[in-house]
Amino acid sequence: MTVLKNGSTYRLNYKNLADGMDLISDIKEKSIATAFFDPQYRGVLDKLKYGNEGQARGKARCELQQMDETTIIKFINEIDRVLRESGHLFLWVDKFHLCQGVLDWFTDTNLNLVDMIVWDKGKIGMGYRTRRKSEYLIVFQKSPVRAKACWTDHAIPDVWEEKTPKIHPHSKPIELQRRLIAATTKDGDVILDPAAGGYSVFEACKLLNRDFIGGDIQYGEN
User: Fold this and answer.
1) How far is the C-alpha of 159 from the C-alpha of 20, rounded, in Å?
2) What are phi and psi of 88, to 5 degrees?
3) What is the Cα 125 distance to its own chain's centre?
4) What end-to-end distance do the CA atoms of the chain give, in Å?
5) Considering all CA atoms of the chain, what is the largest pairwise distance in Å, rounded to the nearest integer?
6) Closest by alpha carbon to 43, among 113, 107, 121, 125?
7) 194 touches 75 (CB < 8 A)
8) How far is C-alpha 112 from the chain's CA centre?
């Protein structure tokens, strides 16, 4: 399926070195089956002010270009534009944004909150009180909301345990993403990740022979 507009220089199944907003603007309306979005926000690091940004465990996260809330909302609106009807968006959030709430980001979209998955990373992180061990994947579906024929794997647990190699400051679980892609797409569908980071979504697509379109402003190839 051709999802890119005529004249686009971006490529399918490639690690595009690109500003995510520029990449999405080159995608046709209602052409994407499933999208993943992992905003590069500081979240808990800013809220709790750990002061460890110069140390090894915080430096890589600190050096990533961060998105403010206005930028995140622009991404979400563009994802809404390119998703086909009843397509899914999987949004990664940290504990801070989960508790604060993210629904205001979706006010002007056709995206509806339908589920959430807790990813147990199998390692202990930072925390003044409890130590963080999880990240959260909020599931949105574009109207019309329906499950039949749109979600085919009903054995995915809402708490998912998976350790992942640290190949990027925001490494994500490939097997979980593979299951979600398989559950919400078919052969010939295209999966979008406009802030691809370590390209774990791309790796999951390869395991399923699904087409991928995505890129990252810092990690990619010309």
Assistant:
1) 29
2) -110, 145
3) 21
4) 23
5) 53
6) 125
7) yes
8) 16
Comparing C-alpha atoms, which of 220, 195, 214, 206 is closest to residue 71?
195
Written as six digits, the tokens of 216 are: 């990252």
Q: Which amino acid is at 133?
A: K
pLDDT tens-digit series, residues 163-203: 988 776 678 999 999 999 999 999 999 999 999 999 999 99
User: CA-CA distance, 50 to 145, in Å (whole number)?
Assistant: 41
pLDDT in tens, 14-38: 999 999 999 999 999 999 999 999 9
| pTM metric for this prediction | 0.89
The dihedral through the CA atoms of 192, 86, 4, 67 has a sign that is: negative
The predicted-structure confidence for 65-112, as pLDDT tens digits, reads as follows 678 889 999 999 999 999 999 999 999 998 888 988 999 999 999 999
How many of the other CB atoms lie within 10 Å of CB of 207?
Answer: 13
